[in-house]
Amino acid sequence: MTQVRKLWPLLSATHRYDKSISTYQRGHGQQIEAPILAYLIETSNGRILYDVGCDHAKIEMAAERERYYNASDFAFGAPDMRADQAIPHHLARLGLCASDVDVIFISHLHFDHAGGLKQLRRCGCGADIHVQQDEMDAAQSGLDPAVFADDLLDDAGGAIEFKLHAGQYTVAPGVEAIATPGHSAGHMSMWIELPKGRPILLAGDAADLQENLDQEIAPGTLWQGREDQAIASIRKLKTIAQDTSAWIWPNHDMAFYRSLQPFPDSYE
User: Fold this and answer.
1) From CA 184, how far away is CA 141, in angstroms rounded?
2) How far is the C-alpha of 158 from the C-alpha of 33, rounded, in Å?
3) pLDDT tens digits for 82-124?
4) Model confidence at 75, in pLDDT bands (50, 70, 90)?
5) Would you call 52 helix, strand, or coil by DSSP?
6) Is there a contact between 50 and 190 (Cβ–Cβ < 8 Å)?
7) Is 90 left (phi over 0), alpha (psi -120 to 50) or beta?
8) What pLDDT was estimated at residue 121?
9) How far apart are CA 168 and CA 189, in angstroms?
10) Helix, strand, coil percentages for the chain (3-state, nearest 5)
């Protein structure tokens, strides 16, 4: 029986970039605006955050912005992120604080999904942080340019402690971690059984857009060019959705995000 009570999508930033970033070898020259999302899951035994958004300091401070989002590495520039879009502010609107989060589940370690860890720690969050061993290995190899190495460090420069996993597992009753590599080495999606209605299947960056799902198009950025692995992960999500009547949520699709209930309304 599921322990899930509520689910909230949290808009932490937006980003304008070439559509080919989201759709492999298509959409060149077409600019899209993408939401950068995190998700809060409330269960009867605690709260789970799926992803934590960007590090606001790297966007707000001019020197940091130039260091991390310079044109030579990021032709599309930095995301647009206001201070009040950081995760602690979303929690405050729900009457919560960072210490009320019990588990942080990182789908993958790219800057727009793991960058907010430092701020949450600074705000008193002592939650276990889950990530895949394969994802950590890839991040530490230095071969994934979308990982900012110091996102994995605390304010003192020490390594943030992660709880490392291998493959699929149950995060909590009604919350299942689903392995969907391809976009990154250890990317994970999440299946969530709500108390009412259909389960929700958070695709994460296994499917940025509805188009990725409908046409089985790989994300535009891939770990070591593994298009085959990325398409297999999309097909896996679709099979799980068919078998469980789940609703797949693409992760960076603005039209889809705008069709959801506005925050602070929740899914139950």
Assistant:
1) 13
2) 35
3) 999 999 999 999 999 999 999 999 999 999 999 999 999 999 9
4) confident
5) coil
6) yes
7) alpha
8) 96
9) 10
10) 30, 25, 45
Side chain identity, residue 133: Q
Structure tokens at 245: 């009547």
Is the pLDDT at 127 greater than 90? The verdict is yes
Q: Answer whether 0.85 is exceeded by the pTM.
A: yes
Q: SS3 of 84, please?
A: helix
Cα angle value 107/219/223 (rounded, 5°): 65
Residue 71's pLDDT is 86
Q: For residues 102 and 138, give the distance between their C-alpha atoms in angstroms, rounded to a whole number.
A: 26
* The predicted structure's pLDDT at residue 74: 86
Q: Check the CA dihedral 83-42-255-31 and report its sign.
A: positive
Q: Is the Cβ–Cβ distance between 129 and 161 less than 8 Å?
A: yes
Distance in angstroms (rounded) separating the CA atoms of residues 107 and 179: 9
